[in-house]
# Entry
Amino acid sequence: AAFLSHIADDFNLSQQYYLIAYNQDPTQPFIDFFYGLLLEYHLDEAEKGEAMIQSAMAVAPQLPGQAAGNLVFQSLLLNGRNRTIEAQRCCEFGSKILNMNETTSSLFCLDGINPL
# Structure
């Protein structure tokens, strides 16, 4: 629900859902990452948001490779809403999990994200 409301530009509702999820598991890197995106790019809390994003990226190599594919899908959703910076950050996170050159993800993430 947090990510879907984030995609739908309902940032206040998204923040409420992220806070619930974060309070249940503050060590979850995906919550750190997506909540960090919300804070940095939509709620004027850039420093806190970037710190959460970097916390998630620090543990990225320990995450399962499938997560990289999920991040590419989420970047496609964000790019479709002309939120290219967030889409690029998803690709960046995914590339820290799995070498994008070894997957079809490179078709989107490495060949450039452009506004649709």
